[in-house]
Amino acid sequence: MSNKEGFAVWITGIPAAGKSAVTRELANRLRERGLPIVVLESDELRKILTPEPVYTGDERDRFYGQLARIGELIVRGGANVIFDATANKRAYRDRARERIHRFVEVYVDCPREVCVQRDPKGIYAQAALGTASSVPGLQTPYEAPVKPDVIVDGRNDPAENASLILAHLKQRLSV
After folding, report:
1. In this predicted model, what pLDDT tens digit does every residue of 104-130 receive, in sequence order?
2. Is the residue at 2 inside a domain?
3. Which conformational region is residue 143 in: left (phi greater than 0), alpha (psi within -120 to 50 degrees), or beta?
4. How many domains does the chain contain in total?
């Protein structure tokens, strides 16, 4: 790894907004440029950090604090991080921004009705059945960013959204 500090991009939005599709596209494009990219995907990291998640406020506070710390360590080591995580409270994303100097927050804005129709993980269906009780943006508040660095429309093609993010990274961070 280089001595140069990396950067972090936090891609946030309600469940099924299109965060993962945009993350995959952006990660591929950055790797094509020869940049070391680590994707911190919340569902995968929960398997390690909270293997039996209950999604309480305290658990989420700990989880997102750990996620921000992991990202900070990776960035300090010279690699670049993409956080693919809802992070329903602004404070979670703000904590990462405070720790990581080269930080970009991307909001994937998508109407809840579209997300409910997509529902690739069945989260909204579980909520309708009563087996999920803390879905961000539905039963648990989701605090959209006040001043995100980039806003993309989750209904758009992920490649188009990745292009918008990449343009911002080029301008702001010379990526």
Report:
1. 999 999 999 999 999 998 889 998 888
2. no
3. beta
4. 1
